[in-house]
Amino acid sequence: MLELKDISFERDNKKILDNISLIIDNNKFVAITGPNGSGKSTLAKIIMGIEKPDSGRIIFNGVDITDFKINERANLGIGFAFQQPVKFKGITVHDLISFAAKRQVKLNEACEYLSDVGLCPRDYISREVNSSLSGGELKRIEIATVAAKKSEFTIFDEPEAGIDLWSFNNLIYVFEKMYKKITGSIVVITHQERILDIADEIILLTDGKIKDRGSKDKIFPKLMKSSKCKFKISKGGTDEI
Amino acid sequence: MKFKLNTDEAKLLKKVSGISSDDIKGAYNIRKDGKAIERVVTDNINIVTKEDKTGIDIYIKENTVGEQVHIPVIISKSGLKDVVYNDFHVGKNAQVTIIAGCGIHNCSSDDSEHDGIHRFFLEENAKVTYIEKHYGSGNGTGKKILNPRTEVNLKKGASLVMDSLQISGVDSTIRETYGKLEEDANLVVTEKIMTDNNQYAKTIFDVSLDGENSSCKVTSRSIAKDTSYQEFVSKISGNTKCFGHVECDAIIMDRAKVIAIPEIDANNVDARLIHEAAIGKIAGEQLTKLMSLGLSEKQAEKQIINGFLK
């Protein structure tokens, strides 16, 4: 279980996260959504330890991890898939999967992780994770790596960002499969309706605050209303539907 | 097998050439402390001692395919300066692998130095893979100095792939590579160097693309740690319709310094030459990514370096 207590984060005199308190139970698929700039990615980075909150505490399975380093959190069971996967020189897909699993993963096992994300293992397993790979390929490799880590709590920061529609359709399938396979919680930062569709719960973040949270049936109409109103206002209308 | 080596020497030999006294195939010439200690030739590859200076001529018959030549040098005697001239004459259509390498073990206060001057003469359509490893060991205050000079002459359609690796422990090195390429010839050089402590490494590439459709690709990856200092100087001259690409990538750490001086000379309107150089510390996001997989910062740094020099 992950608990955030009064998390605040401010940069350049702008409150990016404003007293966020939140509990995410075990074995849940939670989607965090909200407009651009609402603080979603910052929240994800704060959970992983990539950013430090100005105030507040983070409790993971009863342990206060607020002052823990990234790797200490990773070893406690938190995983993180980057919005923009990191590129290396010389490090291969097989290397990354082995680092994630904390052992030299055998070829056939590593290949399974790649098949799961729709990549032909033979073509990718020995490839360097460098700029010769497309955005979609890097994204899938990122997900395969995170899957190999088998974390108890995994955060995906906008997995749909920068990938084509074809890859995206596969991505949904990957998430569904992953959710069935792993025992643990998945938190996805997303704008995509189809990811929101498969979540157990949706958290709506606006201006650094949790505006609402609940089932898809509860949150979705509000979300749609909010986006329609914004569209109408931007076209000179009112916020009434 | 006649030659005998002590433990340190056997380790050096294994490190720089991957061979041992009971595991070596093909033609070879093993040089230890300034003298050849064993030589084996084959029907297609002959090795002859030079008469006018120290060194050997290696003759590879035309159409020789799939053979290997090992010419490792090991130095365990301190205070020795060994200069050797090795010429490789590779016949038409031959396809061979040449493995050189030099290891110095120095436990004393006197400097040990090896200067290997290697000249390659590849006839038409010959193809050579040339692997060169340099390594120093021993905890004496005497320096371990290695100055390899490689000259590559490629006739029409010939190609040479050179992999050069300086693993560690070399206090000072000036590594020079010169190339002259005729029509359709191709030269690929990959250099990997790591320096630490107070070490110095200078690399000089000077390649002349003289023949139409000749091409050259030079990739240098280096890591400079502690207070070490590296210089990378490259020049590619495109004198006709040709393609040249130099890529110099360095990771700098601690208080080390790296200087890269690129030069590409296009002397013909159809010459296409590219130079890329990047020097910087390990990217923070790379460390973050590996730490998010559970590696400590030190472990992450080590894996990034291992990958970079792989």
**Strand order within the widest beta sheet of chain A:** 6-7-8-3-9-10
Main pleated-sheet profile of chain A:
6 strands, mixed
Enumerate the spans of chain B where pLDDT stays under 50 for 5 or more consecutive residues: none
- Most extensive interface between two protein chains, with residue counts: A-B, 24 and 23 residues
Content of β-strand of chain A: 15-25%
Ends distance of chain B: 32 Å
Helix share, percent of chain A = 25-40%
| SSE pattern of chain A | EEEHEEHEHHHHEHEHEEH
Poorly predicted runs of chain A:
none
Which quaternary structure do these chains form? heterodimer
Mean pLDDT of chain A equals: 88
Structural class of chain A: alpha/beta
Strand order of the largest sheet of chain B: 2-1-5-7-9-12-14-16-18-20
Structural class of chain B: mainly beta
- The backbone outline of chain A, from C-alpha atoms, is globular
Structure, described:
The complex is a heterodimer of chains A (241) and B (310). The radius of gyration of chain A is 18 Å and the shape is globular. Chain A has helices at 40-48, 70-76, 93-101, 107-116, 121-124, 135-149, 165-181, 193-198, 216-234, and strands spanning 2-11, 14-24, 29-33, 55-60, 63-64, 78-81, 153-157, 185-189, 201-206, 209-214. Chain A has nine helices and ten strands. In chain A, strand 9 (201-206) and strand 10 (209-214) form a beta hairpin. The termini of chain A are far apart. The mean pLDDT of chain A is 88. In chain A, the strands form two sheets. A six-stranded mixed beta sheet of chain A has the order 6-7-8-3-9-10, with helices on both faces. Chain A has a four-stranded antiparallel beta sheet with strand order 2-1-4-5, with helices on one face. Chain B is mainly β and 310 residues long. Chain B has a domain at 1-170. Chain B has a ten-stranded mixed beta sheet, covered by helices on one side. In chain B, strands 3, 4, 6, 8, 10, 11, 13, 15, 17 and 19 form a ten-stranded mixed beta sheet that branches. In chain B, strand 3 and strand 4 (55-60) form a beta hairpin. In chain B, helix 2 (284-292) packs across helix 3. The longest helix of chain B has 12 residues, at 297-308.
